UniProtKB/TrEMBL annotation:
Keywords: Heme, Iron, Metal-binding. It comes from the Bacteria. Residues 573-676, 718-827, 853-941 form the Cytochrome c domain. Residues 11-21 have a biased composition (Low complexity). This is Nicotinate dehydrogenase subunit B. The keyword Transcription does not apply. GO terms for molecular function: electron transfer activity; heme binding; metal ion binding; oxidoreductase activity. It holds the Pfam family Cytochrome_CBB3. The lineage of its organism: Bacteria, Pseudomonadati, Pseudomonadota, Betaproteobacteria, Burkholderiales.
């Protein structure tokens, strides 16, 4: 595979302009945002997504602070004095987009020729096609760029891994010579600023002033995405491979490797939207037989340099092609090493492969026992490293030996034989190279990424015991080994091929998950177990009967207090995991009184049955849980039984906490027991009879509680199961967001799960298909809301939800994404007729132009109390967020409770300080004024909903603190 590899901007790039590398002062900057089409697509040579059909810019241009609105074909940019002004103007744009007709199968692909001794494919010959997934790089923060076009010079401050490609594109789009474009690193090494750099350059060219563009949260990809790579032989190729041993070779023809998510070679988004068309196909065409570097371009069947710009990583291409080659050899019963040697015509590559195979003793059979499977895999790559001067070729061949435990799916990397030739004179020490090899392999193995896995995100968190892996290095040539990252390219494919050799199971997405492998092994071995299953079923029935008997007991024995909990046995990792469990369960939210010490208890919870005071969960021995053993703690969490044997009220959501895994429960105990003890004796809960008779809760538990841990749904993804586990278990979302029956239990049935409820005098809106949100929630909007406390399409987190968002700020990003992903599958499907932005624009326009509301008495109240922050006609926001009332779920709800609560008490503790504060009007408006204002808000911003009934009574009850 001949792949050029480009390097990032290093310091201040040369060429063009003055010697100063400092960006313009903030006072000199303009700020810009872009309006992207609702659907973007690139077929490899041209933009094929939604097209701009019409655009009304009048309202946007009248926004204070707007400097210009730039439109070039499908590219729209808004330049203003401040970021908020640009964003406000964008919300007033009314673009119309014409969606393209469904396109045939994409032709943009990367090609590789499979060496073969066969005749070409016949019309009826079976063809194979497989899809592989490669983890896309994830940015840690939105990228930004500053561009200043002055005369014939363009200076851009950004960070990109593709500096030369960016310079060429900027020169072409701005009509400059490449020497007139200067790139300066902005220090943002964890983000890719290619797209925003081109945006800023085009807009600076238009206004002649320095412009700053920051990646929009709507386009900043925090989602853990994968690049989808499809591999299949192309039709109609009649080429032959070299003569070899005479055995059947892998399928003849071109191997098409195409990628999703614009992962193939593409220009910047701005260039695509401005009508840029690639002058030649972006395909990278190589012969899989030898990966020999080619010089031909453009014509079909020739080699074209792979342009990695924002595109398909070389490692992804190697993984797909080497996995596919191994699969093709397996179908034809061929040894992959011999098949490669039979086809290859590059002397250096042939020699390297033969040396690695000999050193690894490739022909030796592998043995598998009852308790483990052993296998080995081979992969090869040949690339051109253009980060070196002059560019040099790198050959690399890997043999990976693994052992798989079928009981756990654990993958043990027992040996690596690696050979590479970089044609360089320097020779790093062998121990250092061995460590690099171990690290390169270890990153593609991970422990079971089950529903209760935490924080496996860092590249440094390798589950592999690296020192236990035997590494053999094969030197080639007189120059010895000169390690290059390109030499790591075959690692993932070699491991995947070894896993398949050991188990017969093909994993097509790294990193390779031992949990997935365990499930697939169990599924493959599930035959002939009917008798065992029957015995297991009988045993389970007996255990269930025993559990029911225990649960029905009105009195439970006490568990003796412990004199001392030895916290030294808990590792730092276990305590940190427990901290995350506590954050996911919002423990501090309920167990901290207003103005009190965290987790010391004393918060009064209003329930339909009376006031319940939360307990002290610090490790104080007298007033907290310091004398609780783990057995007592677990019983309380899973069964709702106090250490002394009395039943706990289900206001403590043990019905949800029972779903927590054993590992998470133990970690939570470790975390709580290592915190600072606080002596705080809280007021005892005293409910009126019959609710004060705690033994009656045994019957309640028998009816409504299942002491079962979460069981993952095998038909769903790991991300979905992770989200379901967090939502249903420690997150206990249903405790507030599900309706309850007369006995205070969550109503059963799928239709009632997260169908809306009430807590602490607030409505917890429905999160399922019964949601009253005027624009359906999407995964991305849910993620944004849970991460920041604000969604421009829905509103601000307030009331009891604000501290929940604050607590969730401690969670790893992928866990918040998992929650959003799971909840997104429960929400009603988004409209296919209009994008969310277009729906929002229609609702806001409707709320501004309804003449009926202008005559209502509440108009004056609204103008005096609300308009300065909530009416877009009053100019851009001066601070904080400006939630659109036309999009606010509270005003579209069947219940006025949340709207009343916010008007009475305001928001004095926002989820995030940058969202700003809202004053309450409980002291400045009487009940009649509040009723008048609420009637106005309902009619103006939710005109399709009936008027609220019983407002006077509800206002009076909530003002007095009644529920």
């Amino acid at each position: 595979m001949t792949l050029p590899v480009q390097g990032p901007v290093q310091g201040a790039a040369s060429r063009a302009g003055s010697s100063s590398i400092a960006p313009p002062a903030a006072s000199e900057l303009l700020h810009a945002v872009t309006q992207r089409p609702p659907g973007m697509a690139w077929n490899g040579t041209a933009y094929t997504g939604a097209r701009l059909s019409h655009l009304d810019t009048d309202a946007a241009r009248n926004t204070p602070g707007v400097v210009d609105i730039v439109v070039r074909q499908d590219f729209i940019g808004i330049i203003a004095s401040q970021p908020g002004q640009a964003q406000q103007a964008r919300s007033r744009l009314q673009p119309g987009w014409a969606m393209p007709l469904p396109a045939p199968e994409a032709t943009a692909a990367s090609h590789a020729r499979l060496g073969s001794n066969n005749t070409p494919h016949g019309p009826n010959e079976e063809r194979i096609s497989h899809t592989y997934f490669w983890p896309a790089p994830r940015q840690q923060a939105p990228a930004w760029a500053i561009a200043h076009r002055s005369g014939d010079t363009l200076v851009v401050w950004t960070h990109t891994r593709h500096s030369e490609a960016l310079r060429r594109e900027l020169a072409q789009l701005c009509g400059l010579a490449e020497d007139c474009v200067r790139l300066i690193a902005n220090g943002q090494t964890d983000s890719e600023g290619y797209d925003v750099a081109v945006d800023a350059a085009l807009l600076s060219r238009s206004c002649g002033r320095p412009v700053r563009v920051q990646q929009d949260p709507d386009t900043f990809n925090t989602k853990p995405v994968s690049i989808e790579v499809s591999a299949r032989p192309a039709a109609g190729d009649t080429s032959q491979g070299q003569a070899g041993s005479g055995n059947a070779a892998p399928p003849a023809g071109e191997l098409l490797v195409s990628a999703s998510l614009h992962a193939g070679h593409r220009p910047s988004i701005a260039a695509m939207l401005c009508g840029y068309e690639a002058g030649q196909p972006p395909a990278h065409i190589v012969r899989i037989a030898d990966y020999a570097p080619q010089a031909r371009h453009a014509e079909p069947g020739s080699s074209q340099p792979y342009a990695g710009m924002l595109g398909l990583p070389a490692a992804a291409q190697v993984f797909a092609q080497e996995s596919f080659f191994d699969e093709a050899c397996g179908l034809q019963g061929r040894d992959p090493v011999q098949a490669r040697l039979d086809a290859i015509d590059n002397a250096t590559g042939r020699e390297l492969i033969a040396s690695v195979a000999e050193r690894a003793k490739w022909s030796s059979p592998r043995k598998s026992g009852k308790n483990s499977y052993e296998g080995r895999g081979f992969a090869y790559a040949h690339v051109i490293d253009q980060t070196q001067q002059p560019p040099r070729e790198v050959w690399s061949a890997w043999v990976a030996d693994i052992r798989v435990d079928p009981a756990t799916g654990a993958i043990d990397l027992t040996g690596l034989t690696v050979g590479h030739n970089a044609g360089a004179l320097q020779t790093p020490s062998a121990p250092r190279i061995e460590e690099d090899v171990r690290r390169a392999a270890a990153r593609w193995l991970q422990d079971a990424s089950g529903h209760d896995s935490w924080g496996a995100t860092a590249d440094t968190d390798f589950p592999l015991a690296q020192s236990a892996t035997q590494v053999q290095l094969v030197e080639q040539g007189p120059v010895g080994l000169a390690w290059s990252h390109d030499a790591e390219l075959p690692a993932a494919a070699a491991i995947a091929n070894a896993i398949h050799d050991a188990t017969g199971i093909r994993l097509r997405q790294p990193p390779f998950d031992s949990g997935e492998l365990k499930q697939r092994l169990a599924l493959a071995q599930s035959g002939g177990r009917a008798k065992k299953t029957a015995y297991a079923l009988l045993g389970g029935m007996a255990a269930a009967a025993g559990s029911l008997l225990v649960a029905a007991m009105p009195w439970r024995p006490a568990i003796a207090p412990v004199a001392n909990v030895d916290t030294s046995i808990y590792s730092a990792a276990a305590i940190e995991r427990g901290r995350l469990v506590a954050a996911g369960g919002d423990c501090m939210v309920c167990h901290t009184a207003e103005g009190g010490v965290p987790n010391a208890g004393g918060l009064a919870l209003e329930t339909p049955f009376g006031k319940i005071y939360t307990t002290n969960i610090t490790p104080d021995k007298e007033t907290g849980i310091g004398a609780w053993s783990y057995a007592a703690f677990e019983r309380a969490m899973r069964e709702g039984i106090h250490r002394d044997g009395r039943h706990l009220y289900p206001a403590f959501p043990y019905t949800a906490f029972a779903k927590i895994s054993d590992a998470d429960m133990q970690s939570l105990y470790a975390y709580l027991m290592t915190q600072e003890p606080v002596k705080n004796r809280v007021e005892p809960t005293q409910l009126p009879f019959p609710y004060s008779a705690r033994p009656l809760l045994a019957g309640w538990n028998l009816l409504f509680h299942k002491n079962e841990t979460y069981q993952p749904d095998s038909s769903q993804s790991t991300l979905w199961n992770r989200g379901a586990y967090l939502v249903q278990g420690m997150g206990h979302c249903a405790a507030c967001h599900s309706p309850r029956n007369a006995l205070g239990a969550e109503k059963s049935g799928e239709q009632n799960f997260l169908a809306g409820g009430f807590a602490e005098g607030w409505e917890a809106p429905a999160l399922n298909a019964l949601s009253k949100a005027p624009i359906p929630w999407t995964e991305d909007e849910l993620y944004r809301y849970l991460r920041t406390g604000y969604s421009s399409l829905h509103g601000v987190a307030s009331g009891p939800m604000a501290p929940v968002v604050q607590s969730m700020a401690e969670l790893p990003d992928q866990d918040v994404r998992a929650i959003a992903h799971y909840l997104g599958t429960l929400a009603p499907a988004p409209s296919t007729e209009a994008s969310p932005a277009l729906q929002a624009a229609r609702l806001e326009e409707q709320s501004r132009n309804d003449q009926r509301v202008l005559s209502l008495a509440g108009e004056n109240l609204f103008q005096g109390a609300c308009a300065v922050c909530h009416d877009a006609r009053e100019g851009p926001p001066l601070f904080g967020a400006r939630p659109s009332l036309a999009l606010n779920t509270n005003l579209h709800s069947d219940s006025p409770d949340n709207a009343i609560q916010i008007l009475l008490h305001g928001i004095d503790n926002p989820a995030m300080a940058e969202l700003g504060y809202m004053p309450g009007f409980g002291d400045s408006m009487n009940d009649q004024q509040l009723e008048t204002l609420l009637e106005y808000l309902r009619m103006r911003f939710a005109p399709d909903k009936p008027a609220w009934e019983g407002l006077p009574e509800k206002i009076r009850a909530l003002r007095e603190g009644e529920s």
